[in-house]
Design goal:
The chain is α+β, with helices and mostly antiparallel strands. Helix content is 55%, strand content 8%. This is Serine/threonine-protein phosphatase 4 regulatory subunit 3.
């Protein structure tokens, strides 16, 4: 078995100054021919792949931090870190690095960080090491000036850090701080504030370890209370940490090292967030080591808690024990919530291990028990924990839900408890309900469902959801829409129904036959459209959006359901009740009808015109409804004259071509034209194989062709007389005049007239005599064209 001393985690620092976990493996050192030198090698413990191959450069500055960390930079913006499982392994590799660089292993940094001009570097190198003034009250001002002058120079900053570290200066300064507080020496306290703040900006781990030790950290915080900018009114950070902030050990922590690490991390985090002033742009990078210190402490705490099986077992046992009193359970849930929030700072690999551990310990059954309790605060914390689990791995949550359905009734299923809490949210703004709706949406989203060789999660879970849960989700909607208007129309109820409709609309978009069967069998759309009568516009719009999504699917099952139940009626009623107001309701309804017209949904077009035309015919500020009427009439024309429709089919399907040439522009437009636009296009048909076109009068095939056209013209005359208003405005709607016709057989001089007069397109004017032009030639080509409107 591999020596655990060499077990390490590899980290890299990203652009946000956060450490990314690159994997766990075992480190070794050896000569690498390709790199021409001694190198550090880390191979992954999972598959033996190479996680790191880094040459030990003689000029690279390596730092040892916290006894188990080695940090260095390989490029200007590429920082690396090795976090060792054991101190012995870190010491062993550190000795190898120091041996290559010719350094004493007792140092914590192998090189001085230099980033100065050659002249400054020469001056500093030629000068002896930095000498600190005596640590006495009379020299505090001198020391504060020395610290301030050293910070801009990286080399002087490094020399100052070494001097402070080697002379044990921090403990001496903290002794002076206690003296200044006893003497109420305001000037001395102000100088100490500047000195301690400067020491933080030295960005050195060895100094942090002294400052954050149990005996020093509170005095360090005390020094930072006396900001000169506050004008002699110190802050009370120590009072808060010792009197207000209390560490609640809800489950006894047996490991004293873990307890000390938790205390230290909380205090250091407090220093970073509350005590230290907001760093300037130039100072921000000087606190990178402080960020790293907190980050690695958190990683270590989570790891130690995960490894303590007794602690986690006791935690979940007390959470689910009915004998646990309410106050204790409240503390336990809050601890677990904080524990999960703490894990969000971890890298994906660490977080994966964390949640797997919680899952194995039974966190989901525990949450099910907690969510069934009456305490609102406890349920709120449990909801937050549940959200962490759903965001981490929705498939794990879905698997648990389906497994428990085999043993429990629908009423006590975890997902139904979530739905009930969403429905019963007491918050007037429904903040909790919005959060829970988002979680439900994640759980029913097919995009994050997996498919394996043995099963399809999407099919299994959606079948379960519609069988066991959908009736719970839709219960408030069905209860509130029994009449022609909502039973309850207050703001909070309307908000809740809007949330439910949002989720149902999501289901319409992403689920197929499950939601279709549910809507049709339960008559859901009719109940939803009752909400168009709500006094709250946002709820009425949610109902319209739901119907619009259904129509957008262009599914004939849905269309037949809509027509059978006359479900456009509440939409038309809402449109008429809205009157002449130009608002979102008006636009949403018109857009729905416009979609039916543009997409030419034939069944719905016929249904709307046949049942609601009288109510909509006077709407003339948009051409949508007259356009629907025109679509409907075009459909009727095709139905009333099957022979003409058959001829069009022949024209479309048996196109004759004179030679093997490419299509010209006009022919291409005809070939791609819709059937409804055929009247506006030009068609070419081949002559019959057994009949020839006769120049003497167009007998045979020409007579067969003329018969349906003559009948068509007679119908147009009758139609123009009966419906002058519609045809009068249809020219502006469709961009063309009443159709005229021209037949021509190319290649002959014989002509017959059947052309409409120039005024035939005027409103209310019946078409006059027309001209048929017939030309017969060797090509035998027949052209039928409709002139475009002006």
């Amino acid at each position: 078995m591999t020596d655990t001393r060499r077990r390490v985690k590899v980290y890299t620092l990203n652009e946000d100054r956060q450490w990314d976990d690159r994997g766990t493996g075992h480190v070794s050192s050896g000569y690498v021919e390709r790199l021409k030198g001694m190198s550090l090698l880390v191979r992954a413990e999972s598959d033996g792949s190479l996680l790191l191959e880094s040459k030990i450069n003689p000029n690279t500055a390596y730092q040892k931090q916290q006894d188990t960390l080695i940090v260095w930079s390989e490029a200007e913006n590429y920082d690396l870190a090795l976090s060792f499982q054991e101190k012995a392994g870190c010491d062993e590799i550190w000795e190898k690095i120091c041996q290559v660089q010719g350094k004493d292993p007792s140092v914590d940094i192998t090189q001085e960080l230099v980033d100065e001009s050659e002249e400054e570097r020469f001056d500093d190198m030629s000068s002896p090491g930095l000498e600190l003034p005596p640590c006495e009250l009379g020299h505090l001002e001198e020391l504060a000036e020395l610290v301030a002058s050293s910070l801009p120079s990286p080399l002087r900053r490094e020399k100052l850090a070494l001097a402070v570290e080697n002379e044990g200066y921090i403990r001496k300064l903290l002794e002076l701080f206690r003296q200044c507080e006893d003497l109420e020496n305001a000037d001395g306290l102000h100088h100490l504030y500047e000195i301690v703040k400067g020491i933080f900006l030295l960005n050195r781990t060895a100094l942090f370890e002294v400052m954050f030790s149990e005996e020093c950290i509170m005095d360090v915080i005390g020094c930072l209370e006396h900001d000169p900018a506050l004008g002699g009114l110190p802050r009370r950070h120590r009072d808060f940490l010792t009197k207000t902030a209390r560490f609640k050990e809800v489950i006894p922590i047996g490991d004293p090292e873990l307890r000390a690490k938790i205390h230290q991390t909380y205090r250091v985090q407090y220093i970073q967030d509350m005590v230290l002033p907001t760093p300037s742009v130039f100072e921000e990078n000087m606190l990178s080591t402080l960020h790293s210190f907190i980050f690695f402490n958190k990683v270590e705490i989570v790891g130690m808690l995960q490894d303590d099986e007794k602690f986690l077992t006791d935690l979940f046992a007390q959470l689910t024990d009915e004998a646990t009193d309410d106050d204790k359970r409240h503390e336990l849930v809050n601890f677990l919530k904080e524990f999960c929030a703490f894990s969000q700072t971890l890298q994906p690999q660490n977080r994966d291990t964390f949640f797997k551990t919680l899952s194995n310990m039974g966190i989901l059954p525990a949450l099910e028990v907690i969510l069934g309790m009456d305490d609102v605060q406890v349920r709120g914390a449990a909801t937050d924990i549940f959200s962490y689990l759903v965001e981490y791995n929705p498939s794990m949550v879905r698997e648990f839900i389906m497994q428990e359905s085999q043993q429990n009734d629908d009423d006590i299923l975890l997902i139904n408890l979530i739905i009930e809490h969403m429905i019963c949210d007491s918050d007037p703004e429904l903040g909790g309900a919005v959060q829970l709706m988002g979680l439900l949406r994640t759980l029913v989203d097919p995009e994050n469902m997996m498919a394996t060789a043995n099963k399809t999660e999407k099919t299994e879970f959606l079948s379960f959801f519609y069988k066991h849960c959908m009736h719970v989700l839709s219960a408030p909607l069905l209860a509130n829409t029994t009449d022609d208007k909502p039973s309850k129309d207050d703001f909070q109820t309307s908000q809740l129904l809007a949330l439910i409709l949002e989720l149902l609309t999501f289901c319409v978009e992403h689920h197929t036959y499950h939601i279709k069967n549910y809507i049709i069998n339960k008559d859901i759309l009719r109940r939803v459209l009752v909400l168009t009568a709500s006094q709250h516009a946002f709820l009425a719009l949610c109902a319209l959006r739901f119907m619009r999504r259904i129509i957008g699917l262009k599914d004939e099952f849905y269309n037949r359901y809509i027509m059978k139940n006359f479900l456009f009626e509440p939409v038309v009623k809402a449109f008429l009740n809205n009157g002449a107001r130009y608002n979102l309701m008006n636009s949403a309804i018109i857009e729905m009808f416009e979609y039916v017209r543009v997409e030419d949904v034939k069944s719905l077009t016929a249904h709307i015109v046949e049942n609601y035309w009288k109510a909509l015919e006077d709407v003339d500020y948009v051409q949508t409804f007259k356009g629907l009427k025109l679509r409907y009439e075009q459909q009727r024309e095709r139905q009333d004259n099957p022979k003409l429709d058959s001829m069009r089919s022949i024209l479309r399907n048996h196109r004759f071509r004179r030679d093997a040439r490419t299509l010209d522009d006009d022919e291409e437009m005809w070939f791609n034209a819709d059937e409804d636009e055929l009247e506006d296009c030009e068609a070419v048909v081949p002559p019959s194989d057994n009949k020839t076109t006769k120049a003497s009068g167009g007998t045979g095939e020409n007579e067969d062709l003329m018969d349906p056209i003559s009948k068509f013209m007679e119908r147009k005359k009758l139609k123009d007389s009966d419906d002058k208003e519609v045809l009068g405005k249809s020219s502006s709607l469709s961009g063309r005049q009443s159709p005229g016709f021209k037949l021509s057989f190319s290649g002959s001089t014989t002509k017959t007239s059947l052309c409409s007069s120039p005024g035939s397109g005027a409103k209310g004017s019946p078409p006059t005599a027309a001209t048929v032009t017939t030309k017969v030639g060797s090509t035998g080509q027949l052209a039928w064209s409709l002139p475009k409107g002006t």
